[in-house]
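Quarterly update from the structural biology core.
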Amino acid sequence: MGARVVSDSDSFIEEVTEEVRRDRLFAMIRRYGWIAVLAVLTLVGGAAWNEWRKAQDVAAAQTLGDGIVAALEADAAQDRADALARVTSETEQGDLVVSLLRAAQLEEAGDTDGALQLLDTLAADGDAPAIYRQIAGFKSLLLQADTLPADQRRLRLDGLIQTGSTLRLLAEEQLALIDISEDKPQAAIERLQRIIADAEATTGLRRRASQLIVALGGAPVAETNTN
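Predicted structure, tokenized:
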């Protein structure tokens, strides 16, 4: 009988304890439930905002792409450059891409000064991502191959190499061409051999380097295995 009393007492205590827990839980929900609701709304709202932003970005990219394609459909390079000047973008990178394309069309149209002005302005823009500035600076150097002194071109090309730019191997190729123009075939061959041996060199770049080496009377080194 005593055992049953103890058992009943334990059961009663457990029920009371559970009731107290439930009361506390409901009290906390009544007091702090709005935080949970707010958290849920924030998560749902954040997800919806991200999806909306993604949709906006896709729409903006499509609009920019359509504008670029339409501008490049013009027959004459100058007309394409003029049409690109009217293309607007909602992002800085979109504007940079349009500027690079417009510079290429101005170059094709024979307006080298206009192309250089665009490229040099972009290359000097400290707010633009480094890769865009490097591309603009590199293109500017190519356009000035016959007008800019070799020592100045060397200095700027060396800068691309020293900074580890993705354009470093193309810069090496241009330095080899300067070596050739200064009647330094051996220096050019050694530079071209390094390009061929570089694991990051593209197939096209290796092919051009090999052809130049052969033309200079050298023998291309074996290519580095990139597998």
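The two ends are 84 Å apart (CA to CA).
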